[in-house]
Amino acid sequence: MTERVEGHGGQLALAALRAHGVREMFTLSGGHVFPLYDAAHSAGFPIYDVRHEQSAVFAAEAVAKLQRRPGLAVLTAGPGVTNGVSGLTSAFFNASPVLVLGGRAPQFRWGSGSLQEMDHLPLVAPVTKHAETVFSADDIPRAVTAALTAALTPHRGPAFLDFPLEAVFSVGDAELPPVNPVAPIEPDLDEVARAAALVAAAQRPVIIAGSDVYAGDAVDALQAAAEALQVPVFTNGMGRGSLPPEHPLAFAKARRAALSGADVVVVIGTPLDFRLSFGDFGDAQVVHVVDAPSQRAGHVQPAASPAGDLRLILTAFAEHPGDRADHADWIAGLRTAEDAARARDAEAMAAETDPIRPARVYGELRKVLAPDAITIGDGGDFVSYAGKYLEPAQPGTWLDPGPYGCLGTGMGYAMGARVTHPDRQICVLMGDGAAGFSLMDVESLARQNLPVVIVVGNNGIWGLEKHPMRAMYGYDVAANLQPGLRYDKVVEALGGAGETVEKSADLGPALTRAFDSGVPYLVNVLTDPSDAYPRSSNLA
Ligand SMILES: Cc1ncc(C[n+]2csc(CCOP(=O)(O)OP(=O)(O)O)c2C)c(N)n1
Ligand SMILES: [Mg+2]
């Protein structure tokens, strides 16, 4: 059954967006996109506005990542769109189904020098799955449907449309295209069986599960596969929390022992990139399970690489009919390494130092975070510590910038998380350097009644750059910030609240006040600038 829709371009777009389950827009005002606001306003469709377009795209990305549905950012022509390009690129690297709708200078006088007249497509095409200019109002529902279908089809990713002024302001009518569920990509069953047999026969197998496991709604299938084949599981990105931390196969700390001892490493739903030593695990065979053939690695030759719907592949792993090697000793050995590392972590997280070290911040935070809290990392070393010391207890609760590593996601991700989960704790872990990219958007959060807690690890430096530069050159430049800066006062001025903490004993009460406050609240923790996150590479 198709439905006919009529109205101006904004109304036609909104009809198609709603049909696909889009539930809000993130934006920063511009005349080129007024019809989209008019449509939303008259339909009671929520509009959240921000102070920099990158925050709008990051907010849309947080919605997409957390809810596994399209997130929408509406950006005005020219600078609105170009300010959103880092957000689009992050969504591309993260396979997040984000749709950006851009304004565009009028087509009928293109080339005459209209305000913000610029062709966005060459800029955004390399970082989107679908990029198109829609030249007539009648064509908007088709284009929105095509863009969202591309965004939601594995391997997922962002899409972009722009509407010339006269197209979005004029009235048209169209059939609303039917919304078809995305068909699962059927994997090659022989390849799946070969991969499963390799894992089952392995003596010391390890699974590393990443974001696409969550995005592909394959968390239960992962657990079933791990349990059936008795394989220890490590996670990264949105894969974190896929197995509850207390699960006997859930591991986080023993990664080095696991990867150096493994004979088969199964990497599921994440690329073999710098985070996984480019897929080089010594003598171990690699099984790379991906959600689409396009994601097979070009730089390594895995022993098997099934591609397709992750639920189907992992369910087939779980049902593998052949013999399985016994992994009990291997798992027990890793558990010993895990427990030893955990004891070292516990010591660091309780350490009484002056100035405070980041580990202690996370020790205190763990005491006040609820199991379903959303934690967001935006920064350098401070966020590496968050990855080390925070253990998401549920899937879909951890947001990091992903392999594009773009600073500045903080307030946008926080906004998307707050809109997604009005009743949960939302906590942003932020470097003081990272704070500079998005802290002004505390104003947007405060004004729109979207409380979040921001914990700044304030070491007065761009730590992740300063320490490596000193190690490499013996000196550093462009790596200092004002020490002791009162980021809490900035938040206070923008309509939130906050405080500065210098003593570890004051951390716990400050965090409790922050979560109880009901406003954007920044806990400005003065941390030790001499503390550097231990890294194997200086160019991490
Ligand atoms: C947009 C962007 N610019 C620059 C970088 C390079 N970079 C990575 S980490 C980092 C330092 C972050 O400093 P801060 O947020 O204070 O965290 P710290 O390392 O001090 O804990 C920089 C500049 C980046 N990743 N993204
Ligand atoms: Mg810093």
TrEMBL record:
**Keyword NAD on entry:** no
Q: Name one GO biological process term.
A: L-valine biosynthetic process
Is ATP-binding set as a keyword in this record?
A: no
Sorted alphabetically, which InterPro entries does this protein's record hold? DHS-like_NAD/FAD-binding_dom, THDP-binding, Thiamin_PyroP_enz_cen_dom, Thiamin_PyroP_enz_TPP-bd_dom, TPP_enz, TPP_enzyme_TPP-bd
Residue runs in coiled coils: none
Q: Which cofactor does it need?
A: thiamine diphosphate
What are the entry keywords? Thiamine pyrophosphate
Give the GO cellular component terms, alphabetically: acetolactate synthase complex
Every Thiamine pyrophosphate enzyme central domain range: 192-316
Thiamine pyrophosphate enzyme TPP-binding domain: which residues? 378-525
Q: Which family does it belong to?
A: Belongs to the TPP enzyme family.
Q: What is this protein called?
A: Acetolactate synthase-1/2/3 large subunit
Q: Which organism is it from?
A: Micromonospora mirobrigensis
